[in-house]
Amino acid sequence: ELVESGGGLVQPGRSLRLSCAASGFSFEDYAMHWVRQAPGKGLEFVSSINWNGGDTDYADSLKGRFTISRDNAKNSLYLQMNSLRPEDMALYYCGKGWGIDSHNGGPIDFWGRGTLVTVSS
Amino acid sequence: QSVLTQPPSVSGAPGQRVTISCTGSSSNIGAGYDVHWYQHLPGTAPRLLIFGNSNRPSGVPDRFSASRSDTSASLAITGLQAEDEAHYYCQSYDNRLGGFVVFGTGTEVIVL
Fold first, then answer.
1. What is the DSSP letter of B44?
2. Which of A55, A72, A115, B9 is the most exposed place for a label (fewest CB within 10 A)?
3. Four-point Cα dihedral B5, B11, B12, B13, nearest 10
4. How many Cβ atoms are within 10 Å of A114's Cβ, its own excluded?
5. pLDDT (tens digit, 9 = 90+) per residue, B23-55?
């Protein structure tokens, strides 16, 4: 199971940290992903991280503002979001990757139900 | 950052067959990366429908099938059912800018 938390209403320019609690599988054996869906839009890749946190990827438009991390001891994935903009408003999903490598082109084979981030003054 | 193009919607009557195309380029599907498909109903977690171009996870009906060729892929739903009404997304990997996951633009399947 993947359960996201940390979403909420935040003013533009502020920060928010999302968490994803994993259970039911060996968390440290898998890459993890964050994907978002803005209102009325499709799925959009946000960020990926390999099994030990040593390799991370970001959507080009988010580099420098968002930081993905993980704590394998706590079976948890995180997304630190800084300088939030109205266009960052979305439902943020965490997803389990396919193996330890985030660059293997594999699917996201299990998803959480998402946490909603609203950016508004 | 959607670099995979899908039709906005497709429709069909119950029992009919519909197909959804997913068009990429030489930096993703054309580079040999696998294509995966997801079914997404509003308010729910996306569901992996097809992985590795044409493989169904356990529990996915064989009414769903997919293929990949050159720089594109397609998903077919045969024997369309009312419960198939959802959004469908293709996904692959792109090797530009250090590499990243890419999703299709999404297709709404409407059961008439």
1. S
2. B9
3. 150
4. 24
5. 999 999 999 999 999 999 988 999 999 999 999
The shortest CB-CB distance from A45 to any of B38, B46, B100 is to B100
* pLDDT per residue rounded down to tens, chain A (121 residues): 999 999 999 999 999 999 999 999 999 999 999 999 999 999 999 999 999 999 999 998 887 899 999 999 999 999 999 999 999 999 999 999 999 988 888 999 999 999 999 999 9
Whole-angstrom Cα distance, residue B97 to residue A22? Answer: 29
Residue A57 contacts B, CB cutoff 8 Å: yes
Dihedral angle, C-alpha A26, A28, A31, A33, nearest 10 °: 80
Q: What is the dihedral of CA B36, B84, B42, A95, to 10 degrees?
A: -30
Measured between CB atoms, does B106 come within 8 Å of chain A? yes
Instruction: Report d(CA A114, CA B13) in Å as an integer.
Output: 32
Give A26's DSSP letter.
Answer: -
Partners of residue A31 in chain B, C-beta under 8 Å:
none
- Type of residue numbered B53: N
